[in-house]
Amino acid sequence: MQHTLVIFKPDCVQRRLVGQILQRFEAKGLRIAALKMIQVSQELAEQHYGEHKERPFFPGLIQFITGGPVVVAVLAGPEAVSVVRGMMGKTSGIEAVPGTIRGDFSVSKQNNLIHGSDSPDSADREIALWFAPQELLDYELAGQHWVSEA
Length: 150
Description:
The chain is of the alpha+beta class.
């Protein structure tokens, strides 16, 4: 069972899309392992987006993610990282195809509603930044065998 981090960014929260988007992940067969709403600190934002520190868009990215509350989730399931990435669509909502989250709800590259880990290694690093180990729950969903053989 693979885990991935999903951040419902401030624009997603402000547009009241969190529930609708989270429902898509659940309908796909992913399980919520952790979920919370927080106001992101400057320090956490800089740690999370550290690989972009030297890029010109970094200050705007930090300002955006700290600009309002976010909902952060850990989702679990077979190939959770690639499933979430595929469901999110391309970074730019304009380029994202209809049927993806960004393709259906975004017309922006920065205000693109959602972040998902880009690899299992990134997921492990990111989950450790946002959640303490005891915040992750492992449980079985009733009827899971009807969703996935894993």
